[in-house]
Each structure stands twice: as structure tokens, then as C-alpha cells.
Amino acid sequence: MKAQSDLVIYNGRERSAGIEDKDEKWKTITVIPLPMAYLTRYLWGTDNIRTNSFEVRAVDGSSTGIIHCEDGRALEQWIGHINNHIQSLNQKSIKMSNKYLHQSEQISYIGWVNEHVSEGISEDPKQKWKPRFLILKGGDVCMFDSPPLSSEDLNKCLYLYKCYDVGIRQ
Questions:
Q1: For residue 91, what are the CA distances in angstroms to 103, 107, 115?
Q2: Which end of the chain has fewer beta carbons closer than 10 Å to its terminal beta carbon, N or C?
Q3: Is 151 helix (H, G, I), strand (E, B) or coil?
Q4: Is 38 exposed, middle or buried (0-12, 13-18, 19+ CB in 10 A)?
């Protein structure tokens, strides 16, 4: 089965892109590109989690809006399926990028993390967290405001930290 690269919202119900339905009642509300997207249950920039709901945010800044599920079981199923799709597409991006990188510069992970924002740094006083795109590349941990879309962007990270392998024997 080929992984779809978009999430399509039809009249408040999600389904993978590319699935045609003969029912004329379906109307496309929004299409979200899934490569390098992320799913969140938190209210924007806070520690407050949504009850039985989530949101998918794409690289281009588009969002599904808040999607409400009828119960916790349905929520976990949707989150699992969408996260698996995103991770599958990200793995394809890693494989494509690694074809052109030296062995010592190979990418082992890409994905989103949240950085705690110190008071006074953010324009919004309620915002405590800021999404950052993380890449583990060779011996480096690179953090970006948004995913790098070219090899030139890959060298323009916001933060660069060195990773060290440590072996301890007892």
C-alpha cells in the first residue's frame, strides 16, 4: 500500500487522500500536506491539553483546525494512524536526503520537538512552548524554526549542538 502524502478533511471526517467516495454528500473542507507535518493535542503554545481532540499542522503553516473525536479510543486510533503516516513520509525524506550526503553526515532522525520559551522572549505572554524542527545529522543535533527544504537550508540551523558517543565499562 502506498503512503498518502495528504490528509483530507471531508465534512468533519478525516480520510486518506486519494480515496474516492461515490457518495455525493462528501465535500472537501481542507487538505493538509503530511510530509514533515506534526500532530498536537495541546492548545497553541501552552501546557493545556485538549480533551478528545487534536490538530495537524503542516510545514506550510496550514492546519486542520481542531478535530474532535467522540471518545478516547477513536482519538488514539486517529492519532496513531496519522502519526504513522507522517513518520513513514519522513523516513522516505531521510532516505532521499542520505543518498546525497557523506556517510559521516547521514541523517538519522527528523521531527518536531517543543522548546520551552523563557518569559520575556515571546511576543505572546501566554506562550510557553515553541515548535522546533529537529534533525539528528552525523554528530550534530540541529534545530530549525521550520524544516529545511533544500541542502542550503540544512546548513542554516537555528541551534547546533554536538553529539558525543560515550561508552562506559564497569
A1: 17, 10, 23
A2: C
A3: helix
A4: buried
Residue-range domain boundaries for the chain = 6-162
Q: Which of 45, 65, 46, 62 is nearest to 54 (CA)?
A: 65
- For the entire predicted model, the pTM comes to 0.75
Of the candidates 133, 141, 154, 116, the one whose C-alpha atom is nearest the C-alpha of residue 35 is 133
Question: Are 45 and 130 in contact, with CB atoms under 8 Å apart?
Answer: yes
Residue whose entry in the numeric block shows the C-alpha cell 513513514: 88
Please identify which residue in the block is written with the cell numbers 539528528.
136
State yes or no: pLDDT of 143 exceeds 60. Answer: yes
Rounded Cα–Cα distance for residues 158 and 144 (Å): 5
Looking at residues 74-80, what average pLDDT do you find? 95
CA angle 81, 85, 91 (to 5 degrees): 145
